[in-house]
Design goal:
Distance between the termini: 37 Å
Number of helices: 2
Order of helices and strands: HH
Shape: flat
Strand content: under 5%
Structural class: mainly alpha
Helix content: 40-55%
Number of strands: 0
């Protein structure tokens, strides 16, 4: 695919879907689960370690 072809496809995508910005996203208050996760992030050192996706055993 040439750059011109890619640009044309990209312009089609942009014309079909309106651009979304951070301002378009509704801000909501965190629920209990969100608050528990935030607390764990702040207090549990294991939450500061990242795991590669390939090492996660998805069910």
């Amino acid at each position: 695919m040439s750059d011109a072809d890619a640009s044309e496809i990209w312009n089609i995508i942009l014309s079909k879907f309106s651009p979304v910005t951070w301002d378009d996203i509704e801000e909501v208050e965190p629920d209990d689960i969100d608050l528990q996760m935030l607390k764990a992030i702040e207090s549990d050192p294991d939450c500061h370690e990242f795991t590669k996706e390939s090492d996660i055993h998805w069910e």
